[in-house]
UniProtKB/TrEMBL annotation:
The active site is at 175 (proton acceptor). It comes from Candidatus Pullichristensenella stercorigallinarum. It catalyses: (S)-lactate + NAD(+) = pyruvate + NADH + H(+). This is L-lactate dehydrogenase. NAD(+) binds at residues 9-14, 34, 39, 65, 79-80, 95, 118-120, 143. The gene is ldh.
Length: 316
């Protein structure tokens, strides 16, 4: 059975996602849709001309909302990108308006698709997509803190001199200023990060002390640093989104920290933020709700309240 994905938005993020999908063969068919049809045509043509050189060619082409019909997954990357000095929240109403314009057009042709929201502020836009469509909650996912989690694990792996695959730590909450790391549940292999110096025994060398403040600052500031240095971020978020698609196409539950609508978890509801989510068979299959400390619970509620305060100011 062939898989089809539509990417809405042919900017840096959308085109990089489409390119990566063609290299990894994430789907058999990839449609690129953009209000700038020439840009979409150019990106699709550039990617398509390289597909004969891949191990398993993918059909990549530019199209319209109607061309998206039959898509298993729709990825929305449209909107104004963050510029140097801007926070993700600075984009809120502008990109809310973009989502409100796109939603009825794409859901008309793809009522059974799973939607991945990537545009920022991603938690706000994921929430808005819930409110302006009839798509079931289990089929709306925001990219959330998956990229933040990857940045966290990369930094921890450098400190510990181990593979990122052996680091099990997460970023919870908003993809933004109020995100936080629940250190109480962070592990390297089978042991708590809070006890790693007592339980890891090296044959040679010494273990470096973890600078928790520096690690959290690194995670939180990475996006702004990249924007300052090269103007935009798109490679790592494209990898993250392709990873979500792989989870959706899988038949075994996979865990990812992505944004979804909360319905009473940890005493929070009617807001989208990131927690470990179980994904498989094209939808959210459940949640993992680890026991958090009182301080971590306060941070999670603070993140939810910060998002709700922004939502209250928006025209949805």
């Amino acid at each position: 059975m062939k898989n089809k994905i539509t990417v809405i938005g042919a900017g840096n993020v959308g085109s990089t996602i489409a390119f990566m999908m063609s290299v990894q063969h994430t789907a058999d068919e990839v449609v690129i849709v953009d209000i700038n049809e020439e840009k979409a045509l150019g990106e699709a043509m550039d990617i398509r001309q390289g597909t004969p050189l891949t191990a398993s060619p993918v059909s990549v082409y530019a199209g319209t909302y109607e061309s998206a019909a039959g898509s298993d997954i729709v990825i929305i990357t449209s909107g104004v990108p963050r510029k140097e000095g801007q926070t993700r929240m600075d984009l809120a109403q502008t990109n809310v308006n973009v989502i409100k314009a796109i939603a009825p057009q794409i859901t008309k042709y793809c009522p059974d698709a799973t939607y991945i929201i990537v545009s920022n502020p991603v938690d706000i836009l994921t929430y808005v997509f819930h409110k302006v469509t009839n798509i079931p909650h289990e089929r709306i996912i925001g990219s959330g803190t998956l990229l933040d989690t990857a940045r966290l694990r990369a930094r921890l792996a450098e400190y510990l001199n181990v593979s990122e695959k052996n680091v099990h730590a997460y970023v919870f909450g908003e993809h933004g200023e109020t995100s936080f790391i629940p250190w109480s549940i962070a592990q390297v292999s089978t042991i708590s990060l809070l006890e790693y110096k007592d339980l890891i025994k090296l044959r040679t060398g010494i273990l470096t002390d973890l600078d928790f403040d520096e690690i959290e600052k690194y995670m939180r500031s990475s996006g702004a640093k990249i924007i300052k240095r090269k103007g935009a971020t798109y490679y790592a978020i494209a990898m993250s989104v392709c990873g979500i698609c792989d989870c959706l196409f899988g038949s075994v539950n996979a865990v990812a920290t992505v944004s979804s609508m909360l319905n009473g978890e940890y005493g929070i509801d009617d807001v989208c933020l990131s927690l470990p989510i179980l994904i498989a068979d094209g939808e959210i299959r459940g949640r993992i709700l680890p026991k958090l400390t009182d301080v971590e619970l306060e941070k999670l509620h603070a993140s939810a309240n910060a998002l709700k305060s922004v939502i209250a100011t928006l025209d949805i």
